[in-house]
Amino acid sequence: MNPDDSSGCPKCGHTDASTDSISTTGGGLSKMFDIQTKKFSVVSCENCGYSELYKNVRDRGSDVVDVFFG
């Protein structure tokens, strides 16, 4: 991968990615009662598996992939 090339996976340069979402617990009472209050979108490279989490992204799946690829 050319260091000046800002498109593709930041790790391997591959251009195929998938998106998913996860929920996690916060701290305090939500952790004690296992209440999942934090939501993240996950963008993962289909080639190497490198993943990035994006907080508070709702209905912006394609925008998140654009951010991942630069």
TrEMBL record:
Domain of life of the native organism: Archaea
Annotated region (Disordered), positions in chain: 1-27
Protein name: Nucleic acid-binding protein
Origin species: Haladaptatus litoreus
